[in-house]
Amino acid sequence: MKTAGFRRAFILAVLLSPAVSLGINQAWAETSYFPIPSASNARNDGSDAGLIVPILVTDPDGELKYIHAPMLINNSYLGVRATYNLFKYDTGGRQTMFIASFTETIERKLLFTYSDPALSEGRYALSIGGGFFKNATSRFFGISQDTPESNESNYTAREVRANWKFGAYLNEVTQIAVGQRYREVRVQRGGVTDLPYSGQLFSTVNGMEGAAILGHRVTFHYDSRDNLISPTVGTQITSYYELNQNFRNGTNPLFTRFELDVKKLFPSESKRMILVVRGNLQATNGFEVPFYERSSLGGQNNMRGYGMDRFIDDHLVVLNIEQRIHILRARVTNVMAEFEVAPFIDMGKTFSTFQKRQFKDYEVTPGIGFRAIIRPGTVGRIDYGYSREGGAVFAGLDYPF
Description:
By secondary structure, the chain is mainly beta. It has one domain: Porin. It has 3 helices and 23 strands. The longest helix has 7 residues, at 10-16. The radius of gyration is 21 Å and the shape is globular. The chain starts with 9 loop residues before the first helix and ends in a 5-residue tail after the last strand.
């Protein structure tokens, strides 16, 4: 799910732009706003140009409490987009996000998430979320890693989502959680008119007829990192098993998903250089599984040289290696900001069986990232990855892993 133009690394632009500070209730908070021209180009999403006005609200100690970010963007595929973004940061790591967006052509968005990692004095964790969106620049190339670039097609993913997760801590770093998710999908004609419509080109692929999926998940978490958003040391291990039911499939409604994700940070003594290694394994088992429920390679979180969903199959394995290098720390208006450069290499593959060619046919994408951090709770980034099909640019408000 993309977060439109707002996630085009507005934090980086904020920290590099002149600010206007408002003396609004100065005893309680400092409020600054930053009119920022925005321009970007993404592999799947097209070109954006417009204006973002992030408004940062900090408490008397300089801690970031709110980000309000209205924006007006013109997209080369979809026309004018108006968006309002709200991020709220509370003590104990609690976070709330709300996004509302309306685009001239097709796209709509209404999203809400809330998370509390230290509920009831740190004994439990709770997260809930939901939303409705239409992503008109989704791509589909077919199933398997052998799909050629010439297979590229476009569709609109019209989705309704809801989820909850409740976890109990076994100790300070270990948690067992249960949760559910609901995902309703309709595949509709997309907004990229110079590409064929996926629903016609791949009409027999499972999922083109839509899906209504209820998933039941059990998750194991181990996390010894020193911070959830901007860590500098530690290990994170997450593994889940999920049983899903597709209510729109009367023949083979059940399928399962499994994922193991391991991250390890190796800091230098000064923490000015942090080597991050991440491994990810995914497996999907069942018959007639919708293509958007299978493992996907490509995008900002696993293979940054390709656009989102470039390769899709039942299973996936990925290795990411990233060297985060501190280059500057400075006070920008009323917040302390840190800047990083991060060369990286991503390696991975999708496949349909574990029985053959496990050490062959890996995609490899080197690249470089640029980061701005307002510790402890805000990270803005831009990543560029290069692949045999060219390259891709991604931006967001978090680390990629």
